[in-house]
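Q: Here's a chain of 150 amino acids. Please give me its 3D structure as tokens.
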Amino acid sequence: MNSSAPRYRSVSSWLKAQFGEPVRKISLDAGLGCPNRDGTLGSGGCIYCNARGSGTAAASSGISIAEQVDRSIDFLSRRHRSRKFITYFQSFTNTYGKPARIREIYSEALQRPEVVGMAVGTRPDCVPDIVLDLLAELASDRLVWIEYGL
């Protein structure tokens, strides 16, 4: 065995093989909450998220998902000459909210043709069947990842 060969395949190399070129992640802030923040299960959050979340605080600044995507694509296209992207909902619980609102934000995030997929950070106890059905629907023609925080 060649000792210099990697023992695993990186996500970036897998994405490049799938889409024929590098794919960049775009972090988005949907402004969704969490049952450990809104009083449903607790308040003040948990050890996994800081008070502002792990994102940009764009939602609290009134920046729409579509504008966050546009700004990020413009920046990454200039800086890295990127042409393909995955939108990434990382802060808090991005399957926690009214299903109509969740559909709206996911649809906004996937509008541009350069967006080849979406990653959604959530927690295992906050993924109702209606949201799983929506994710399955979206996955019929693009890459969809669910990242479960444990």
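Q: Can you summarize the key feature?
A: The first helix runs from residue 11 to 19.
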